[in-house]
Amino acid sequence: MLSLAANFAISGKDPHSYLILNLLLHLLNVVLVFVFIYSISHRQTLVAFFTALIFGIHPMHVESVAWISERKDLLYTLFYLLALMQYWQFLQSRKPLHLWLCFLLFVFSLLSKPAAIVLPLVLFLMDYWQQRSISRQVVLEKIPFALIAALFAIITLKLQSVTAMTSLDLYPFWFVCFLEATR
Questions:
Q1: How many independent structural domains does the chain possess?
Q2: Domain span at residue 61?
Q3: Would you call 134 exposed, middle or buried from its count of C-beta atoms within 10 A (0-12, 13-18, 19+)?
Q4: Helix 136-159 and helix 173-181: axis angle, to 10°?
Q5: What's the predicted TM-score (pTM) here?
Q6: Which of 46, 133, 138, 145 could be cross-linked to 120 through a Cys-Cys bond (beta carbons 3.0 to 4.6 Å apart)?
């Protein structure tokens, strides 16, 4: 909402600035995908380029760029990718600052769209991929992420109207969280 308010302060109701900012956010996300994949693929430029290319031109992103109301997807993706990049830096350096920045970016991603609740699981997958044993320390560093994700999941479930989401009587809580994360 803050980004839309900034757009309104700059250009009022003229839709062009909203669409231009959406396009710029999408292009920034494409660059972040390239940088992230480049980092995790041991600096393989072709892999990063083709991954970013597919991400950039995939039809799934058309609505996020074309619809002003879908700015939330672009911001959620921006902060999510930045959080992943900070966690990757944490895995490489083990500096707590990167973990804290990852957490802060995770919160920003959640504030943009609740679908970011899956990040703690992705962090565990990154640990596994880097052959980091699942120790007590690894689990403890994920607890703040899991607590915030659970809080946002509960808030989302409480705030969604009956028409926006099926009741928990029909589907279990974990399934509803999965559906929200894949939206």
A1: 1
A2: 2-181
A3: exposed
A4: 90
A5: 0.85
A6: 145
